[in-house]
Design goal:
Protein name: DUF368 domain-containing protein
Structural class: mainly alpha
Keywords: Membrane, Transmembrane, Transmembrane helix
Number of helices: 16
Organism: Isoptericola haloaureus
Pfam family, one: VCA0040-like
């Protein structure tokens, strides 16, 4: 069985800027790719922020998903080759097809910054929740324009239905109350990782938020700090299985149902804004600001966050067009 992965079709306008993938990547691009991967990793450490959203903004999304699909294909070729007595040759061919000059620096930057952010940005969010959430709220709010700009056709009625349905689903998902698991079993750790890792490729859904809901956000931080290899190993195995199970489906949807998929992704991003509302109680319940004076500072921070994302999107679009 050869089931070679295919690239999503390119389209006109804004879609081409994000969807078109070059046939190869130069190692000279590695530093820039590592920085963009680091931004994705930083997002994954913050509840309410999806790494997939940042991948969209920085122009990594289609290529990252295609590369992940190729790696999954190589893994399947490895299992089938061994089971059918064909050896490692089919898997070797599949692995050589992966654009490692793109994938390696992106994943490397992502992992390094993710671990660093778990001990820096997450505590900052706990100490200064309103200003930090305000910045991220503005960033994600303006980011909704990114998947809408990547639609191959004009926005239609069915797209509106899908967007609203996804927004409602995302709103209620991130509004689920957090749970507490003091001593999670390894099978639960692997299951939670399999679910949360999909936020890496699904804009609008935060892996950290899912871990908070499942009661594993703090245990994951503690396991990393304590170098609990059994916990980290179970998490890594679950993440690998979960990502391999979902990435092929999403890659197919982007290649064959791109219009509707982008509408759903935009809706999920809108719904996820609930997790970033600046004023919340200890359980994540939404609160009103305490007077008009309390709105000015967060509003200015939200505008600054939106302007930052707008500048990044403009830079990424102009850079790719110039190339």
């Amino acid at each position: 069985m050869t089931d070679e992965p295919s690239e999503p079709p390119t389209h006109t306008g804004a879609v081409r800027r994000h969807a078109a993938a070059p046939t190869g990547t130069s190692w000279r691009s590695a530093p820039g790719l590592a920085v963009r991967g680091g931004l994705v990793g930083m997002a994954e450490s913050v509840p309410g922020i999806s790494g997939g959203t940042i991948a969209l903004i920085t122009g990594l999304y289609d290529r990252l998903l295609a590369a992940a699909s190729q790696v999954v294909h190589a893994g399947r070729e490895l299992v089938q080759g061994v089971a059918q007595g064909h050896g490692l040759r089919p898997a070797g061919r599949a692995l050589r097809a992966v654009d490692w000059r793109f994938l390696a620096p992106v994943v490397g930057g992502m992992v390094v910054v993710l671990f660093a952010s778990l001990s820096t940005i997450a505590p900052l969010l706990e100490e200064h929740p309103v200003p930090v959430r305000s910045v991220f709220f503005g960033m994600i709010a303006v980011s909704v324009l990114v998947p809408l700009s990547m639609m191959p056709h004009r926005f239609r009625g069915l797209d509106a239905v899908l967007l609203v349905a996804a927004a409602v689903a995302g709103f209620f998902l991130v509004g689920l109350p957090p749970s507490e698991v003091s001593d999670p079993s390894l099978w639960y750790v692997a299951l939670a990782a399999a679910i949360a890792i999909n936020a890496l490729v699904l804009p609008g859904v935060s892996g950290s938020t899912l871990l908070v809901i499942m009661g594993l956000y703090i245990p994951v931080q503690q396991a990393i700090e304590d170098r609990d290899l059994a916990f980290v190993g179970a998490f890594a195995v679950g993440a690998a299985v979960g990502l391999a199970s979902f990435v092929k489906l999403l890659h197919w949807l982007l290649g064959h149902r791109r219009q509707g998929t982008m509408a759903v992704l935009a809706g999920l991003m809108i719904g996820s804004l609930r997790a970033l509302w600046p004023w919340q109680d200890a359980d994540g319940g939404l609160l009103a600001p305490a007077g008009a004076g309390a709105v000015v500072g967060p509003l200015l921070l939200a505008v600054a966050g939106a302007a930052l994302v707008g500048a990044v999107f403009w830079w990424e679009s102009s850079r790719v067009v110039d190339e």
